[in-house]
Design brief:
Its main location: membrane. By secondary structure, the chain is mainly alpha-helical. The protein contains four helices and no strands. It has one domain.
Length: 110
């Protein structure tokens, strides 16, 4: 379930940020802002769904998923095929995210 929430959050964040990009950099209508804001609100909600005792750890793990999703956006939405460095960097980040999210934790308190 966490993976779906992370990828959903990434799509919502990228789409929301792209709406602002389109308005400011691509000379689209200011009306692009409204769905962008809604998308960013959805992003924030979805990021609360993964099971984690600490928000920061969940956000850090999400970062790797975000990077993979951004590379996919580059390819599928913007039509630029990722090169080997894009792919290598995304894989490294995803491995780091998995270590953060699934790594064994001490049960000691304090």
């Amino acid at each position: 379930m966490s993976a779906f929430a992370f990828f959903g959050a990434a799509l919502a964040e990228i789409a929301g940020c792209f709406a602002f990009w389109a308005w400011l950099r691509l000379d689209k209508s200011p009306w692009w802002i409204a769905p962008g804001i809604l998308s960013l609100c959805l992003f924030a909600y979805l990021l609360t769904l993964p099971v984690s005792a600490q928000a920061g750890r969940s956000y850090a793990a999400y970062g790797g998923v975000y990077i993979v999703s951004a590379v996919l956006w580059l390819w599928l939405a913007e039509g630029t095929k990722p090169d080997r460095w894009d792919l290598l960097g995304a894989v490294v980040c995803l491995i780091g995210a998995a270590i953060i999210y699934f790594g064994p934790r001490s049960t000691a308190v304090g």
